[in-house]
TrEMBL record:
Signal peptide, first to last residue: none
One Pfam family, short name: V-set
Subcellular location: Membrane
Keyword Membrane found: yes
The protein's name: Ig-like domain-containing protein
Gene3D superfamilies linked: Immunoglobulins
Organism of this sequence: Mastacembelus armatus
SUPFAM superfamilies hit by this protein: Immunoglobulin
Alphabetized InterPro entries for the sequence: Ig-like_dom, Ig-like_dom_sf, Ig-like_fold, Ig_V-set, IgSF_BTN/MOG
Cellular component GO terms held in the UniProt record: external side of plasma membrane
Principal location listed in the UniProt entry: membrane
The UniProt record lists the keyword Oxidoreductase: no
């Protein structure tokens, strides 16, 4: 391997330095949609909380909310219309910190950047956990790149 390049789970990653913050970029991680065009946007936290807020957003949309869970329930108030009845928590109990969501009926228009934010308790602002770039291409393949 060349200097600074590492293999992570079968994909290549290169540490990027931005103002003393090191991000690890996973390139070319490839996942397939199920035959029902369902895809999981993965996100997890290490700490558990009974009172957790989870926000999935897609910057550039207005409103940009894909999915919001607060006060122990799904909150559809500001959800973008294109995601209505298509997104749900992968695990409704959020066991082991799994705050992933399942996106149903995925199409080319779902291509974009998705951000997962989580807040523990009601007084804290949601904190960015990861950024996922979703690209839907011909043959129903989905390519994702996640920064954590």
């Amino acid at each position: 391997l060349s200097s600074g390049l590492h293999s992570v789970c079968g994909s290549w990653s290169r540490p990027l330095e931005v103002s003393s913050v090191v991000l690890k970029l996973k390139c070319g991680q490839k996942k397939s949609l199920t035959r029902h065009r369902v895809f999981c946007l993965c996100c997890g936290v290490t700490h558990s909380s009974e009172n957790r807020t989870v926000e999935w957003t897609r910057p550039g949309l207005d409103p940009d909310y894909v999915f919001v869970y607060r006060n122990k329930k799904f909150d559809p108030t500001n959800q973008h219309p294109s995601f209505k009845e298509r997104v749900e928590l992968k695990d409704s109990q959020m066991k082991d910190g799994d705050v992933s969501v399942t996106l149903k009926n995925v199409t080319f228009t779902d291509t974009g950047i998705y951000e997962c934010r989580v807040a523990q308790g009601q007084t804290k602002a949601p904190e960015l956990i990861n950024i996922t770039h979703l690209r839907v291409s011909a043959g129903e393949c989905v390519f994702i790149t996640t920064l954590r």
